Amino acid sequence: MGCAEGGCGACTVMLSRLKGDHHYSVNACLAPLCSLHLVAVTTVEGIGSVAQTLHPVQERIAKAHGSQCGFCTPGIVMSMYALLRNKATPTMDDLDDAFQGNLCRCTGYRPILEGYRTFTKVGTPALTVVCCLLRQDGGCCGGGASGNGCCRTNGTATPLFDAKDFVPFDPTQEVIFPPELMVKTDRSQSLCFHGDRTVWLQPNSLEELLSLKWKHPEARVVVGNTEVGIEVKFKNMVYPVILSPAFIPELNTIKHTEQGIIFGASCSLSLMEAELRRAVDSLPLHQTQVFLAVLEQLRWFAGRQIRNVAAVGGNIMTASPISDLNPVFMAAGVKLTLMDKDGSRLVQMDSRFFTGYRRTALRPQEVLVSLEIPYSKKVRQTQFMSAFKQSPRREDDISIVTAAMSVTFSPDTSLVEELKLSYGGMAPTTVLAERTAKELIGRPWGEELLQAACSSLAEEMTLDPSAPGGMVTYRRTLTLSLFYKFYLTVLLKLRDQVWEVPQGQHLDDVVGRPIMHLSALKQATGEAVYCDDIPLYENELYLALVTSTKAHAHILSIDTSLAVSMPGVVCCLFSEDVPGSNSTGPIVYDESVLADGQVTCVGHIIGAVVADTQSHAQRAAKAVKIQYEELPTVVTIQEAIAAQSFYEPIRTLQKGDLEAGFEQADHILEGDMHMGGQEHFYLETNVTLAVPKEDGEMELFVSTQSASKTQSLVAKALGVASNRILVRVKRMGGGFGGKESRTTILSTVVAMAANKLKRPVRCMLDRDEDMLVTGGRHPFYAKYKVGFLDNGQVVALDVSYYSNTGNSMDLSLSVMERALFHMENSYSVANIRGRGFLCRTNLPSNTAFRGFGGPQGMIVAESWVTDVAQRLGRPAEEIRRLNLYKEGDRTPYNQVLDQFTLDRCWDECLRRSDYKQRRAAAHLYNRQNRWTKRGLAVVPTKFGISFTAVFLNQAGALVHIYTDGSVLVTHGGTEMGQGLHTKMVQVASRVLGVPISKIHISETSTNTVPNTSPTAASASSDLNGAAVHNACQVLVERLQPYRSANPKGCWEDWVKAAYFDRVNLSANGFYRTPDLGYDFNSNCGRVFDYYSYGVACSEVEVDCLTGAHKNLRTTVVMDVGHSLNPAIDIGQVEGAFMQGLGLFTLEELHYSPKGVLLTRGPGSYKIPAFGDIPSHLTVSLLRDAPNAKAIFNSKAVGEPPLFLASSVFFAIKDAVSAARSEVGLSGPFRLDSPASAERIRNACTDRFSQLICSVFSPSFTPGPSDHSGSFKLVLNCSVLTLTLVLVLS
Fold it and tell me: Which residues of this UniProt protein bind Mo-molybdopterin (predicted)?
């Protein structure tokens, strides 16, 4: 499950050791069973269950609405549980620390923290009351009513949850350490475990360890397995001998000396962190400068689960060039004790310790026994030290550049006596800038020293243009920027030395109330069953995919001889084994089930290996040898444009007279921008279990948003009718569009194997495999020309969009059409034209993703609006408000806007955010601060609701009433965490007039509701809700005579009476959205049923020296009509916003020039974490906004809020504008999405970036380890700075 590399935290469990009663969270995926001798393992199932008693940790995350898809929930529960076992009343800082290693893609994190805040000293959260979100009769006045008229003061407000209802937490009632493990606690016995390819040796003494290392000099020494585990899993490394010294006393001791603190090499980073923190609390500040620097790096070092097991010695010995800690150890002059069986020696970590990439000065037989971290100088205020880390995401991320700097002054002066500048990420090893340091000795700490240091560092810290990792200009600039931050820090210290629900609604009516997600409790206890949780069938087999390593090539030969001879292998499958049609695809059959003669992307599925176990199947799949003849490859949008590699048709959408509009304009501006793609990163990867039945039938358990499409494509591949294929979907661990069409590339292959072998076959993709083969959000490139008047009114727009479609059409045409339908976002433009080009490239086919082209279209609109404002020198918010649509306006596709609430959302957002005051405060801050700048942006969204493919706007439902009065509801939608089943139960409850406890939804299946549309387009609550309503209304009418005959009876009485009267208590429901249909040729018709509107105001703070930014504050106002379930809808708004935050500021897919995806897994691809939430996030649902076009006046909420996160992007751009103004730069400038630290830093032009002038040859082609698809050179002539821009397609 999860990622298998310790990056997502979904598999978190708690380990306990009897000694010291110590409990700690770990990633189960990295914890070898061999290492758990005499250790107690507690999983989420072990602390509570729905059937028996819930643990408070499980109860609170569920009832606080902190579980949506639920796949991450067990891991988060166990991180919290482990924290409570060690600290019964934690602080909020403890929570932040505990969750650094956990990711959630659904919730936006806020409800999780709010629920668990109740365990802390802070207590009940302040954000639980959202009365104005619940009342539909005018809502809350915000306290403005006179007297006792406000629900906030008169007690009628409805909370999302009430902490008083939670079971109290009693730490004395936790399970004890297992008595079975108390019987023998002596670890003096050596252990030896033999595997197929590896021997695990656990010596009991240092002497034995040294003897074994002498005997096996190439053996890997493993404590936490955080490095070797990754190498074995993803790099296919095999280590015949592994030595585990985790319990050798000498390697686990901590000793205080006069010089510092000695840590045994096996001490975990968490243990070192705790000891250093105790030292900092008890020792004078001037003695703990080194300790503080180490703690600063540990704060952002991986997650808590990794730090709990990773050994400090292992961190040193891996010799990573981007290590967080090694620069600190080098700058501090840490001393290492090395031993072999002949003796010991003391080595200082200096420029000679790292001898090359991943190599150290240790001899093969030597072992690192301990390290001594020194105190800083005992003479007061003579030594200062700081550590820095710059990474795409601050929490749990791999560094781009790390640095540690230490300066010692002659007593009572500011003259530099000793200086050490250590950098990671600037060479194959951690390096010291020795030449620069030497030049600065004896100089006073001042401006002249700064200038000399920066000039020297610019010359000394060089990188080859083809350096692995790319970002050469940014990394070189960082060396100067980080030194400047250190300079300012020290300078400051030196100076310090000298100086709501409708009234009257019945309590039993649950529509509009914050009902908990129906599966939340099961998800919190680990009892919720996902596809791969289904118990093994008898004779079940496992399938592993064989995929292409080339982006475009002919297949010359396939050699399976080695694979079929390996243990457990049953068979190999290739295109000739497809019994039906090998052609497949969600709309156009332009794909193959298995590649036949040619591959068109890296990750193209060529075949499969079926074996008795997962490990055997995967090992054999890697042994299949394929020879290729490579063909020309197109990877990026720019390459596709150059080669004119496009799919047909090229869509055009036009209204008005474009030529006349540009003639009318006072100003014409042209620009372009690129928006990168995005990985879905659902926590549950693609999985299928196929079970063959009699008469050619096949039952499939699939994690898919599209059961019917899976059914039809599997039937096509097997050559049978659809009525022989049953697809069942219980729940998904996230989808976000990624499981709408791409799941079938796995399901068809698994079904084919089960059909051939007549045995159940299962496959769940590993995280890296899933990311490689499935594709993601389409990268877009856009060029625009905009005409506008002196007052800022836009009168003409011509925009061309280019999407990186990939190697097949998939849903890309529909994605582009939606981008065109949103090309103006929320602005009225009289004369407008948009064109959409689908670029055919050799990447895995990109596909649906939350927003479905809308965000790509809208961010370009916000870009040209910002350009107009910057050209006119006016605030962007004024230009946005001036051009905003009004009631009755027509869109570019001639649809009239009615029930228009965007202007209300705008005004409400500005009011709630205190925009004017915050803007004034930001201006003041920017005048007072040179190297940090604050920016604000207010961004609207108008998102059309309906499938643009008209035939998909239909849904069915089936409702049964049983004789005991219980109700079973089935509908065509699938549950992926968005709470669809919960809302459908609420709808049925209101219509039938029965409590939700009597209603159950089991699963989605093709044999109950046929021909279902995908659960997508944010339309599922509307469509399926109306279908459920229809079915329930039919049953209500059938029961009405029995209600009338027995008005004092109960539900069960009426049901039984109808049954005995032979009335059908089962009903089908159906709904189709009326009056839809649009024609591109005539530009007429109705594209959408209605629109969801929203506005967000965000404020950020940018560090101009590094490009890092902080999300300070966001206010969101969203129109969701009359919410069916405010708790779920708020969760959807927050979750979409955080996913958008990743899209626009963090998440970046890197491909090699040969089309190889380099960012596969959480180690290299970063989604937002707990620490990325804006410090102040407020979500309000617009009141008095009924929507007559959807069920119970509600509105869609899944996709529309995502684009509001672009307010953070444009707030960053606003802050960068303030930074550029410091050097006299004004007017429009290009900032591509995502606004990574690299792009931000390069845009903040200053004297340090001017010192970095690396000249690259335009013909330069990056090496295979570069993280970019192509390079574009941009010369900023005004400051003579050459900027490297990554173009990711």
Answer: 705, 736, 850, 1017
